[in-house]
Amino acid sequence: MRILVQKYGGTSVMGLERMRLVLARVQKAHVEGYKLVVALSAMSGVTNRLLAQAREFSANPDPAELDVLVTTGEQASVALFSMLAKDAGLRARSLLGFQIPITTNSNFSRARIMDIDTVRVKAMLEDHDVLVVAGFQGVDCHGRLTTLGRGGSDTTGVALAAALEAEVCEIYTDVNGVYTTDPNLCSNARKLDRISYDEMLELSSQGAKVLQIRSVELAKKFNVPVRVRSTFTDDPGTLVTLEDTEMEDVLVSGIAYDKDQCRITVRNVMDRPGVAASIFAPIAEAGILVDMIIQNTGRDGRTDMTFTISRANLDKTLAILEHLRPVIGCEDIQHDIHVCKVSVIGVGMRSHSGVASTMFTLLKKENINILMIATSEIKITCLIEEKYVELAVRTLHDAFGLSEGPAKACP
């Protein structure tokens, strides 16, 4: 049995005409001999409307009940598309997360997939041409509905492809693939034909919105080829796959940026063992992700601790730090929401030097001050003032020649 998994995002299923475009792709794959598992998102805007409605009824909605509510968006999508597919002569059936089941932990609103019952899915594929699965959702061991977090339908698609050993997972969206940077910010951004899992992970973690980061983690772990393409064109898109020698010759693959950043500085904390743990352990326990961290050189038994978080977590983080004041003995807690991360990413950086110095020199020439720096094997990230983000991205994109072709490493 040849199995193909396709995932369609909210803009792809927004109304009858767009669902007909999805149907045409499904029919084409069916004619080519595939059994299809199609994961659908809620129609664009539906999840946000449901969340807004929940907050009209409750100032602090219960996370478990919120998951019950927001899963109805995907439920509507799969039911409507299944009707359309059946009318077109396909043997189709809609499936919700709990009907498969897609079993998750009980971390409501950001649950993680623990297991997928592939025996049942494969049995149903014997009698159907296409199974239309609600993305973004699952069920915990207590029978309660869960959701996988924003962009969770990507994770649903990749997880199904991994579990079913599908040939590929096709992620359909409203863009033609993965670009060297955001085309809305840089008009000469170039679509990539291929990109490695590691590069895609870095792009996703540094602000690129094409794929949810957990879906890329799953794809890498289980070696699932992922093709990102547009529902609305015949462009072949971008293949996310294993790194090869040709990819290693490319010095820089893309420039990413993330405006959802806030810098917090805890000033004059006690410079002694355990203080960093006292600060970051409670933040982690609250489910808040900390990104960049710097600790200044201590002086007179005191030091400053600076780190970044997403803006949505600012109030919660400040409340935690205020509670910790007596423990860490800080003088002041400062924050700045007018900051942005800009990252240069490429697997070629593993074995070639000079990218960091080039990046820093380019920013200096534009009088852009670097507030913080973080690096990995294939990424260099600078925190800068938000007002300079467009200038920084365009400058770096042009300097590394990304609009003309891959930035090749020097021999």
From TrEMBL:
Report the protein name in the record.
Aspartokinase
Provide the residue positions that the database annotates as binding ATP. K7, Y8, G9, G10, T173, D174, Y179, K209, V210
Q: What class of enzyme is it?
A: transferase
Q: Does the keyword Iron apply?
A: no
Q: Which NCBIfam families match?
A: asp_kin_monofn, asp_kinases, PRK06635.1-2, PRK06635.1-4
- Please spell out the taxonomic lineage of the organism that makes this protein: Bacteria, Pseudomonadati, Thermodesulfobacteriota, Desulfovibrionia, Desulfovibrionales
Task: Give residue ranges for domain ACT.
Answer: 264-347
Arranged from A to Z, the UniProt key words for this protein are: Amino-acid biosynthesis, ATP-binding, Kinase, Lysine biosynthesis, Nucleotide-binding, Transferase
Which reactions is this enzyme annotated as catalysing? L-aspartate + ATP = 4-phospho-L-aspartate + ADP
Organism field: Desulfovibrio sp. U5L
Please report which protein family the annotation says this sequence is part of. Belongs to the aspartokinase family.
Q: Which GO terms describe its cellular component?
A: cytosol
Molecular function terms, GO-annotated:
aspartate kinase activity; ATP binding
GO biological process terms on file: homoserine biosynthetic process; lysine biosynthetic process via diaminopimelate; threonine biosynthetic process
User: Where along the chain is substrate bound?
Assistant: T47, E74
Q: Which InterPro entries match?
A: AceGlu_kinase-like_sf, ACT-like_dom_sf, ACT_Aspartokinase, ACT_dom, Asp/Glu/Uridylate_kinase, Asp_kin_monofn, Asp_kinase, Aspartate_kinase_CS
Q: Which EC number(s) are documented for this chain?
A: 2.7.2.4
